[in-house]
Amino acid sequence: MPVKETPAKYPVIDTDPHFTRVVRYMRGSDYATWAGATAAGPGLFWLYEKVDPTKASKASLRSALRLTGFLGFAAGFMLAYQNSSLRFWGWKENAYEVEKDQKELSARVSSGQPIYGETELTPYLQGVASRNSTFSQLKLHAFPW
């Protein structure tokens, strides 16, 4: 089953990129977004506590700050991952990623490896996996799969 064609302003690299590939292609701005979201969670919680104190114990405040730090870290990662995926789909400027992809794929071809690796899945299961994961990054906010 062919992948649905979507209008893209920039060249499409891959409509269903592998997780490790998306993370390897992250830019510095993605890491800055991730770090900002990680710091924003406890920072906002601390600010709210200063504005309207709950008079909770220091131990419970530390636990709450740790929890908001973890939630900020997870949310920041998902936002950075989604931004990197948007560049794979051609929905954001992706000149750097296109160049890196060309180098990576030409190196695989010149060494005699298959471009996208080998699989042991049947064609039917490949289709099922593709239908379940293509454009799945658009729903990270609702269902972080």
TrEMBL record:
The chain crosses the membrane at residues 31-48, 63-81. It comes from the Eukaryota. Residues 9-93 form the NADH-ubiquinone oxidoreductase 21kDa subunit N-terminal domain. Pfam families: NADH-u_ox-rdase, NADH_u_ox_C. InterPro entries: NADH-Q_oxidrdct_subunit, NADH-UbQ_OxRdtase_su21_C_fun, NADH-UbQ_OxRdtase_su21_N. Keywords: Membrane, Transmembrane, Transmembrane helix. Residues 103-145 form the NADH-ubiquinone oxidoreductase 21kDa subunit C-terminal fungi domain. This is Uncharacterized protein.
